[in-house]
Amino acid sequence: MSDANQLLAGQVAVITGAGSGIGAAIARKMGRMGAVAVVCGRTRDTLQSTATAISQAGGQAEVIECDVTDLASVESLAKRVDRRFGRVDILVNNAGIGGSGSPLHQLSPETWDQVLNTNLRGVYYCIRSFAPLMIRANRGHIVNISSLAGKNPLPNGAAYSASKWGLNGLSYSVAEELRVHSIRVSVICPGSVQTEFSPHSAKNSAKMLQPDDVAHVVAMLVTQAPQSFASEILLRPTLKP
Ligand SMILES: NC(=O)c1ccc[n+]([C@@H]2O[C@H](COP(=O)([O-])OP(=O)(O)OC[C@H]3O[C@@H](n4cnc5c(N)ncnc54)[C@H](OP(=O)(O)O)[C@@H]3O)[C@@H](O)[C@H]2O)c1
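Above: the input record for the complex with NAP. Below: its predicted structure, written as tokens.
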């Protein structure tokens, strides 16, 4: 069922990592609010499931495969969006991976590279490719999905934590670069969310944040009045799980 007010009607929202978890919830929310949801990730089947859910709820979705660690792939995504829609109003940089769960001195350089290339370099590639479209239109909203691990230490997750601390610094800095173009760059730092992402078996799932909770915050950010700019949201569960 579509949200009655269709506040994003006519807009185009690109969501990376939209085949599962938080990204899928954000894409469904953008679709329900009337935006065309461009769902991106590396796995066509899961993206297609998200797109089907959006269509069945009366929304519009476009599936585009993209690996955010590959600049050519991200540039091709931006070109396709520009050719097909001529605009991008919302970019949600959500694609991300965890780590190995081992102390840093035992982490392989390959895993370090995968984590940093996905969670940090991938966001740079997406902003590099999509910001010019937003600057051209003198409007837009970029939402980066970080983590409370970008605010706190995460033992046995140092590469992940470093990628999210880096993402926060990137977000604050790019926000200053782009606000002159009326583009808002916001970062959301959620605590543990119930997804396949990492085993949170020690936690009480009934108290955990859900993917829709993050989607709700994205919806709040992209529907602010033009003069208002919430730049950073720390999202915690009400009761500790
Ligand atoms: N779950 C949590 O507790 C939690 C808490 C705070 C923050 N976060 C953040 O929230 C975001 C989403 O996490 P999630 O929990 O929803 O995990 P998830 O279900 O594993 O979703 C991650 C998505 O990213 C995509 N992805 C991974 N590498 C990619 C690449 N190179 N290019 C394009 N897409 C890629 C995956 O799809 P493919 O593999 O098909 O590409 C997948 O759909 C991440 O940035 C994560 O750091 C999660």
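Notes for the reader.
The pocket of NAP is lined by residues 16-17, 19-23, 41-43, 46, 66-69, 94-97, 118, 122, 145, 147, 190, 192-193, 195-197 (CB under 6 Å).
The CA atoms of residues 200 and 234 lie 19 Å apart.
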